[in-house]
Design brief:
Blueprint (H helix, E strand, L loop, with lengths): L1 H20 L4 H11 L1 H16 L10 E19 L3 E24 L3 H67 L5 H36 L22 H11 L1 H22 L4 E15 L6 E14 L7 H67 L5 H35 L4
Antiparallel strand pairs: 1-2, 2-3, 3-4
Helix pairs in contact: 1-2, 2-4, 3-4, 4-5, 4-7, 4-9, 6-8, 7-8, 8-9
Length: about 425
């Protein structure tokens, strides 16, 4: 997390000049994603909302204060007959009544529910932070995978261009041999066909590179057509995973597992919240009141009352239609489901870890073999080209050597990329991206 924040801070200064430099490193790309990714921005807002909701007032621990006021004016016609014999008949009698008060209400005791709710809000805020971290880790994973896919495709282009140079040399040699009458024309024609096919592959590969860059731009929330930049020319492979260390960290570091654990804590507090509804509730209230009444006729022409008022109330739940028991029962079921979700998530991340480790080890072994194989096919191709220059081999043999070189180089690039993806997955699972 600290590393991600550091990259974000550094990237803010680098972003304006990245395209001027025409080179984006993987750290630059991660920094841009941390700053621009809409998924991260939304997740951060959700975390901020959870943080803002975590207050004592939202938990019901603080009093509420309100100022109230009213002014009512009325005009009435009245007729009053009183005992023994008295009649009052009034027309257009006006009354103006003004009321104002400042009132404070405070729940002093609610069975401890307010304290449980505050703890629950703490856990919800913590869960928001974990979900934010999960989104950051997923975005970083997506960036790394997409970035090195661009590197892989560019390395493939280098391979195709190398094949083009071999085919051009082969055409030149066979053209000379054909002019001298020492080789058949079909060999020359096949060499020219192979040259054109390799050129077509190179052009098609350039389109694949542009498409890969657009995919990377989408993850970085950049202009899709801003592909006029370079990436590094190799895939660094220096990671050496320790299985025992990974197994120790998978349940303590993995943010998905930690999030499900946090949901259990929240569910437990929900049960306690509903249990608190069985206990009495004590409220305290106080106010300062002002009342003024002005009558145009009657026995009381003017009245004014003002002063403080203090009171309280207690509410003891006796029967609420079984709702409290129902709420407690459903919250216990939700707690049980939260436990199931946690155990399921542990199985999932453990499976992902084992698969990623197996994939990493297999790709590492395949890469070691293919590195040796690449050296062999390259040497074989050089020998075949030399033999072709001296007229000691057939065009078919050279063509087969070229195809073996191209296939081996493609496998080598793919093994390197797959190894980097497996490495990135392992780092993501233990939250060390």
């Amino acid at each position: 997390m600290r590393k991600g924040v550091l990259i974000l801070i550094l990237s803010i200064g680098f972003v304006p000049v990245l395209f001027a430099q025409k080179l984006i490193t993987v750290d630059n790309a991660v920094g841009i994603a941390l700053k621009n990714s809409y998924d991260i921005l939304v997740s951060r807002n959700d975390a901020d909302i959870a943080k803002m909701n975590n207050t004592a007032g939202n938990a019901g621990m603080l009093p509420t204060v309100a100022a109230n006021g009213s002014d009512n004016y009325s005009v009435n016609n009245s007729y009053i007959k009183q005992y023994p014999v008295s009649e009052i008949n009034s027309s257009n009698v006006s009354t103006n009544a003004v009321n104002a008060n400042i009132q404070l209400n405070w729940t002093l005791y609610d069975g401890g529910k307010m304290f449980v709710t505050k703890n629950k809000l703490n856990e919800i805020e913590a869960l928001g932070g974990l979900q934010y971290r999960t989104q950051i880790e997923q975005t970083v994973y997506d960036v790394v995978v997409a970035y090195f896919n661009v590197v892989k495709q560019q390395q493939q282009l280098v391979s195709f261009n190398k094949v083009i140079s071999y085919n051009q040399e082969r055409v030149t040699i066979l053209q000379t041999s054909f002019n001298a009458g020492s080789t058949a024309k079909n060999n020359l024609l096949q060499a020219k066909i192979d040259l054109n096919v390799s050129k077509e592959n190179s052009i098609a590969q350039q389109s694949i590179i542009i498409s890969s860059k657009r995919n990377l731009n989408q993850i970085l929330s950049l202009n899709i057509d801003s592909t006029a930049y370079d990436v590094i020319d190799s895939i660094p492979l220096m990671y050496k995973p320790n299985k025992a260390d990974l197994l120790n960290k998978i349940y303590t570091n993995n943010t998905n597992v930690l999030s499900f654990q946090k949901e259990i804590d929240i569910a437990k507090l929900s049960v306690d919240e509903f249990k608190a509804n069985r206990l009495p509730k004590v409220n305290f209230n106080t106010s300062y009141n002002y009342q003024f009444t002005n009558n145009s006729s009657g026995t009381t022409l003017l009245s004014r009352y003002y002063g403080p008022q203090v009171g309280g109330s207690i509410s003891i739940p006796i029967f609420q239609g079984g709702n409290i028991n129902r709420l407690i029962a459903t919250s216990k079921i939700q707690l049980e489901s939260a436990h199931y979700n946690l155990e399921n998530s542990k199985i999932q991340v453990n499976t992902q870890l084992e698969n990623a480790l197996t994939d990493f080890e297999n790709q590492e072994h395949l890469l070691a073999i293919e590195k040796e194989n690449t050296d062999l096919v390259k040497e074989n191709l050089e020998i075949s080209m030399q033999r072709l220059r001296y007229g000691q081999t057939t065009a078919l043999e050279v063509r087969q050597a070229q195809q073996s070189y191209e296939d081996s180089f493609t496998r080598l690039i793919n093994f390197k990329y797959n190894l980097k993806v497996a490495e990135t997955k392992l780092r993501q699972l233990i939250a060390e991206l």
